[in-house]
Design a protein that fits this description.
Blueprint (H helix, E strand, L loop, with lengths): L1 E2 L23 H17 L2 E6 L4 H6 L2 E3 L1 H10 L4 E5 L2 H10 L4 E3 L8 H4 L3 H10 L4 E5 L4 H5 L3 E3 L4 H6 L7 E4 L2 H11 L4 E3 L12 H10 L4 E4 L6 H10 L7 E3 L2 H10 L4 E5 L4 H8 L4 E4 L14 H10 L8 H16 L2
Parallel strand pairs: 1-9, 2-3, 2-4, 4-5, 6-7, 6-8, 8-9, 10-11, 10-12, 12-13
Helix pairs in contact: 1-14, 3-4, 4-15
Length: 342
């Protein structure tokens, strides 16, 4: 795998992290708001979808809590008139592309994504012009405009499967996450993947030394690392050479983590991803212990969604997320290929 030298980081100048609002509601008030949300969803025939990184009280009221791939599948098959997406902007865009006849609401438009912000459609077009024979694989963490210029979409759950579906002699432009590109290259044995140098600002800070410290404190623990993590390249190499326990080191999407934990006999897990998933894990597996590899792995974009703005969004039917028809038509092809390979 090589990294595209044309574009340089850091990408932090492209976005502003919103402040994380502290919610001081008592449990009775939380339950009251959740009940009102359920009533409004019933009245408006709306479905509420939440990502694993959302606040616990938002996850608790959602109709479905999952990763990007599973939420896309749920959006594609729902018969609801409205979709309230408790996630970030590119997720709501994907739902709008899959369900053009439905109203898609994103309760807070500040819910962006640092990874999606790391590549623009103009940059992708320049990249494609230099390698016109390459196949473009776009991580789902991209704008609709970028998806429209891509051949395939993928998620962290099916990136390797998407790469394997592409003829071996075709070079692949993989964007925008360089760490996921590394995982896909290692898992498929492809040496003709050219990676864009983007990254998630949260996952980038999950470092190899934190993994080592975790193993020192918990020598029998299983390591569950998201493919976006900054420690991925190092940890994959260490697992191969035996420095890390190969039989206890796993590179998994959030949904993959849930499946693995359910099948594993282990009692302790080190979790390398955004902290929001710990609520789901501790609720689903109360007999097991979970430790964050980086206890500061919090996405401010995900935390913009609160019960208050979910309520406001349902009451006002806003803000709505729409994708221009021509961009949606082109992006739909890449998204459909992702879903076919789910």
């Amino acid at each position: 795998m090589t990294t595209n030298p044309i574009f340089q980081d850091p990408f932090e100048a492209r976005y502003t992290l919103p402040p994380i609002e502290t919610m001081d509601d008592a449990q009775d008030e939380i339950r009251r708001k959740q009940q009102r949300i359920r009533e409004l969803c019933a009245e408006r025939n709306a479905i509420l979808l939440a990502h694993h990184y959302q606040r616990p009280e938002v996850q608790e009221v959602a109709d479905a809590v999952a990763d990007s791939l599973k939420l896309s599948q749920t959006a594609a098959r729902t018969d609801a008139d409205a979709i309230v997406f408790c996630g970030v902007h590119f997720m709501a865009e994907t739902a709008a592309i899959l369900c053009p006849e439905k109203t898609v609401l994103l309760p807070d438009l500040r819910a962006g994504c640092s990874l999606a912000a790391s590549i623009t459609v103009e940059e992708l077009r320049k990249w494609k012009a230099k390698l016109p024979d390459a196949v473009v694989v776009a991580y789902i963490n991209t704008s609709a405009a970028v998806k429209a210029e891509s051949d395939y979409c993928c998620t962290s759950a099916n990136a390797a499967k998407v790469v394997r579906a592409i003829p071996a002699d075709r070079p692949i432009l993989f964007l925008p996450d360089k760490f996921l590109a590394e995982v896909a290259a290692r898992q498929t044995g492809r040496n003709n993947i050219i990676a864009y140098p983007g990254y998630c600002h949260v996952h980038k800070e999950i470092r190899p030394e934190q993994v080592v410290e975790m193993l020192e404190e918990h020598p029998d623990i299983e390591l569950l690392l998201h493919p976006e993590c900054g420690c991925v390249s190092s940890c994959m190499a260490k697992a191969l050479d035996g420095t890390l326990p190969q039989d206890r080191t796993f590179f998994l999407s959030t949904e993959g983590m849930l499946r693995h934990i359910g099948e594993s006999s282990a009692k302790e897990f080190a979790v390398g991803t955004e902290l929001g998933i710990l609520h789901r894990l501790r609720k689903g597996f109360p007999e097991k212990a979970f430790y964050p590899v980086n206890p500061d792995s919090v996405c401010a974009f995900m935390k913009t969604i609160t019960l208050d703005n979910v309520l406001r969004s349902l009451e006002t039917r806003s803000p709505q997320v729409r994708v221009p028809a021509e961009i949606a038509r082109k992006a739909r092809r890449a998204i459909d290929r992702m879903l076919e390979l789910a």
